[in-house]
Amino acid sequence: MTTEEALSWQAAMEEAEANRNRLWSYCEELARGNERARLTGPGDPETLWKEHVLDCAAALPLLPRGGRIVDVGTGGGLPGVVWAICRPGLSVTLLDSVSRKCIALGSIIGELGIGNATVACMRSEELARSNRERFDVAAARAVTAAGPLVELLSPLVSVGGMLLAFKGPRVHEELDEVGPKWSRLGLGEPFLHPYPLDGKSRVIVRWVKAKSCPGTFPRNPAMLERKPWWR
Known about the structure:
It is a single chain. Helices cover 42% and strands 23% of the residues. It is of the alpha/beta class. A seven-stranded mixed sheet has the order 3-2-1-4-5-7-6, with helices on both faces. Strand 6 (191-197) and strand 7 (200-208) form a beta hairpin.
């Protein structure tokens, strides 16, 4: 990592540590929620902290202090709940289409008193119709490949805002598949922010929204994989 990237990682971990008590309470609630609704993989708070909360916290240096954020495919609230706890000036929409997850997540944020986060139980295509280009940041973690993902995220973000995607070792393969065609969705070229997590190499991909996304996007969900927008 460069010095700048290392400092960003250090700042992210310091911010997580400063909010450790509330974040740990979230881990405990999420572990209990897993028993009811399978919100995420691991079920114990310690693993949730190491593998999920700290992972989500890595993006904190990239986020504004205020503004509207949407977490697409949030599941148990990752990364949106982590960001809402650490950044009370943000208004975070936790988006998921699975009702049992939405109900469980709503219970968690209610129990923890997270007043700057709300749950939206619908598909991203529906939210794009009612809140088109109204968010400052749209993010996703463990949802789908970069190409299909930006078709879901770009229509939600205002011009000048940004898209964030958490990625692993296949990130270059996913980005190379699209090539230089990001501008078709109103996006600039992707910028990669690598960071370490428990000995593994991870990357946050960031796109800046340069212009409005064409109104034809997002398309019907069946079209995302069948007819990629970049071909």
